[in-house]
Amino acid sequence: MSTVFGGMAVSLDGYIRSESGDLSWLNDAMAEDEDYGFEATERRTGAYVMGANTYREVAGMGSGGSAVPTHVVTHDVTLPTSGKTQLFSGDLGDLVGRIKSSIPTDKDICVFGGGQLMTEFIELGLLDELGVAVVPVILGGGVPFFGRISRWSRLELLECRPFPSGIVLLTYGLKRLPA
């Protein structure tokens, strides 16, 4: 059975983007000789689900046409797509079920980008695994990692990998607490 996993980089004070939209803090923190798991993520991913803003960013960097099926959650039906990218608006549970039935059983679903989308997946109990790359920088404001979450989710630490650059990768399994 496929796992639904997601992850993002976050500043030590909990932001995924500075107030100005500048992401140089993230690139400046990464070291060329450190393996943050990007290749492993690509190998395990059978489909991506991403928010429209993240998709626009990725497409703007010239990476909008992935060979892996990509589902962009948006209400903007005019958003241009390429490759195996499809727009989606509707029930995220239905989307996950549809993707699970269409990808090989040894592949997983990667929720890529956007605090709002990540929050929705957690709220709906659709996220099995959460990866957090804590970047050693304090931004002081910006776009928060999570939106408002209505109830607790218990996390089980699956892995903790510190790097000489100061970045720490944390991987958690999610467990829903009773309502």
Primary descriptors:
179 residues, 10 strands, 5 helices, alpha/beta, single chain
Describe this structure in words.
It contains 5 helices and 10 strands. The protein has helices spanning 24-29, 38-44, 52-60, 92-102, 115-123; strands at 4-11, 15-17, 45-51, 70-73, 85-88, 108-112, 129-135, 143-144, 153-162, 168-176. The strands form 2 sheets. It has an 8-stranded mixed β-sheet with strand order 5-4-3-6-1-7-10-9. Helix 3 links the parallel strand 3 and strand 4. It is globular, with a radius of gyration of 16 Å. The model has no long low-confidence stretch (mean pLDDT 89).
Question: How are the SSEs ordered, and which strands pair?
Answer:
Blueprint: E1 4-11, E2 15-17, H1 24-29, H2 38-44, E3 45-51, H3 52-60, E4 70-73, E5 85-88, H4 92-102, E6 108-112, H5 115-123, E7 129-135, E8 143-144, E9 153-162, E10 168-176
Parallel strand pairs: 1-6, 1-7, 3-4, 3-6, 4-5
Antiparallel strand pairs: 2-8, 7-10, 9-10
